[in-house]
């Protein structure tokens, strides 16, 4: 396992994050999965307030070794469906959700506290100031944003910079060979602002995991999914790897941190092997061309303009560092 810095911080995080959404009990197998992940060098454990018993299970599993892990959890979703203020990204829900998560996780601080989803009904200024207060209190060390538009993240971090608040160090988004929408705005934004990217659903909700591991029936796949599954199988066969390993290796190649949600040690061993898999450029081209994907406006337009001498003149190709 290799490591990267979290955003523009000095925190070292492993290239694969361990997702624990499906952890309903601290079973012997779940404990073995966490042990195997740690033995391989993994150090980021990701959960959320809305993942059922996951926070409580993670808290139990980390007893006696909590400080060795970068522990992340999320807030936004409701704590009580009958209370309108028990949900959202406002200060009240943030404060009470954080206290609830600390109790469930059996810890006095969260390494990485994520806003789970953009709340259009709460000013981003309120959220960023409340998050900064949580950091200053010592209950949170770093903050991240999940499932939000690029302009929201950009505005949030610009406010944080101007007002000397804690900026978002990480961004969490869905990303896979079947779902590359984030390449249009979110990934370029994250690179420009120095945010680490955690990718969920890198296996396309099981579609890209391979025939033996899929939770969906092959005859339920659409034409687009079948084309990608076929391309994955061909590349995997040529490389002596599994489809899941190729899909994860492709995401790693793009600089993101795949969230692997293994429920058995067998699944985790397969996922971990992806970190050593080198994808040839020709294989990457085949995978990315297997299904149609267009960046769309403005990215396609700006790329075309960038190559036009009518805009920047004849000598632009001689400009280094473009």
UniProtKB/TrEMBL annotation:
Transmembrane segments: none annotated. It comes from the Bacteria. InterPro entries: AKR, AKR_Detox_Biosynth, NAD(P)_OxRdtase_dom_sf, NADP_OxRdtase_dom. It holds the Pfam family Aldo_ket_red. Keywords: Oxidoreductase. The keyword Signal does not apply. Residues 16-291 form the NADP-dependent oxidoreductase domain. This is Aldo/keto reductase.
């Amino acid at each position: 396992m290799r490591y990267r810095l979290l955003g523009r911080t000095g925190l070292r995080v492993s290239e694969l994050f361990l997702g624990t959404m499906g952890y309903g009990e601290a079973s012997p197998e779940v404990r073995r999965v966490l042990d195997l992940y740690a033995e391989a060098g993994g150090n980021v454990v990701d959960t959320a307030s809305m993942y059922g018993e996951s926070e409580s299970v993670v808290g139990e599993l980390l007893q006696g070794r909590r400080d060795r892990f970068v522990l992340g959890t999320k807030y936004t979703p409701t704590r009580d469906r009958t209370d309108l203020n028990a949900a959202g990204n406002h200060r009240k829900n943030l404060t009470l959700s954080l206290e609830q998560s600390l109790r469930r996780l059996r810890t006095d601080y969260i390494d990485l506290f994520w806003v789970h989803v953009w709340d259009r009904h709460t000013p981003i200024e309120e959220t960023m100031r409340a998050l900064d207060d949580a950091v200053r209190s010592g209950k949170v060390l770093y903050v991240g944003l999940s499932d939000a538009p690029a302009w929201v993240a950009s505005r949030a971090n610009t406010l944080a910079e101007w007002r000397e608040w804690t900026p978002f160090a990480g961004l969490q988004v869905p990303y896979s060979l079947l779902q590359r929408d984030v390449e249009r705005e979110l990934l370029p934004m994250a690179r420009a602002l120095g945010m680490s990217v955690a990718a969920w659903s890198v296996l396309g909700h099981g579609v890209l995991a391979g025939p033996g591991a899929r939770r969906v029936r092959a005859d339920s796949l659409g034409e687009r999914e079948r084309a990608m599954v076929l391309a994955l199988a061909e590349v995997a066969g040529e490389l002596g790897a599994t489809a899941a390993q190729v899909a994860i290796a492709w995401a790693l190649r793009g600089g993101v941190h795949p969230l692997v949600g293994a429920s058995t040690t067998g699944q985790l061993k397969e996922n971990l092997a992806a970190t050593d898999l080198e994808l040839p450029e020709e294989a990457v081209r085949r995978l990315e061309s297997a299904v149609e994907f267009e960046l769309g406006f403005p990215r396609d337009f700006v790329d075309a303009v960038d190559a036009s001498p009518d805009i920047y003149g004849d000598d632009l190709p001689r400009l280094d560092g473009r």
